């Protein structure tokens, strides 16, 4: 009221202490306003309980989370640590940690590994040229004669060429042969020509050549072998003479 009266003469009340207190109260109210919004629910709940004496209170509020219940007791933590880590409990007795039983799978792994190895050997044997020649020799089926040759490699090459031709004709596209496929095809043709030299099962010299050719593909070079510097190169460049250093 004094401030309102003195507002008629602002020059006299400019530095009055009442205005400083009003500014301080306003600042406090602005800072407390967010906290008041956060605590409004709890304050209303406590006022409702105080006015009603606990009657008519919503029972669903009793199931609200209680942060105090989240903290475990010290004794319970010690007991759990003792069971997991194998240390002694309250009584000081050592208790071994509980370990789950694990089956021994080393024998099963060895059996699976041996089964895979046998399967690879069986597939390799089925693709063997000598075995195919023996099957053709003693089988009662009619002999299959191809224009390119009669060996197993020739049949495999012819089958791949037929599949490639059918794919190109059905989709009207040209399949581009990569350099790696060309080299592989040339090697298989060389094997086919070597296999045609067998002639019959009695020609053991040619059979030995085929076996040596098959071994050379899986041979691992050793550091003792001298490295070839000059001479003719193998593969598709066998007709080119390399310079000798």
TrEMBL record:
- Acidic residues: bias regions: 70-84
Which GO BP terms, alphabetically? Answer: maturation of SSU-rRNA from tricistronic rRNA transcript (SSU-rRNA, 5.8S rRNA, LSU-rRNA)
Biased composition of type Basic and acidic residues is found at 109-119
Origin superkingdom: Eukaryota
Q: Which GO terms describe its cellular component?
A: small-subunit processome
Q: Where is this region: Disordered?
A: 57-119, 215-245
Protein name stated in the entry: Unnamed protein product
Q: Which organism is it from?
A: Phytophthora fragariaefolia
């Amino acid at each position: 009221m004094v401030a309102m009266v003195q507002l008629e003469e602002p020059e006299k009340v400019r530095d009055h202490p009442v205005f400083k207190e009003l500014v301080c109260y306003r600042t406090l109210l602005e800072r407390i306003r967010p906290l008041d919004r956060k605590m409004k629910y709890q304050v209303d709940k406590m006022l409702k309980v105080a006015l009603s004496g606990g009657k008519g209170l919503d029972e669903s509020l009793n199931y609200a989370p209680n942060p105090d219940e989240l903290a475990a007791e010290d004794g319970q933590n010690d007991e759990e640590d003792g069971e997991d880590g194998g240390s002694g409990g309250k009584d000081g007795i050592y208790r071994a940690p509980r370990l789950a039983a694990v089956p021994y799978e080393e024998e099963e792994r060895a059996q699976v590994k041996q089964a895979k190895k046998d399967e690879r050997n069986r597939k390799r044997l089925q693709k063997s040229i000598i075995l195919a020649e023996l099957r053709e020799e003693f089988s009662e089926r009619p002999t299959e004669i191809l224009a390119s040759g009669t060996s197993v490699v020739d049949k495999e090459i012819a089958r791949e060429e037929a599949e490639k031709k059918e794919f190109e004709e059905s989709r009207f596209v040209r399949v581009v042969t990569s350099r790696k496929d060309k080299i592989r095809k040339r090697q298989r043709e060389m094997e086919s020509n070597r296999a045609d030299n067998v002639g019959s099962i009695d020609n053991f010299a040619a059979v030995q050549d085929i076996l040596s050719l098959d071994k050379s593909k899986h041979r691992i070079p050793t550091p003792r072998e001298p490295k070839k510097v000059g001479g003719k190169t193998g593969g598709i460049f066998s007709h080119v003479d390399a310079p000798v250093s």
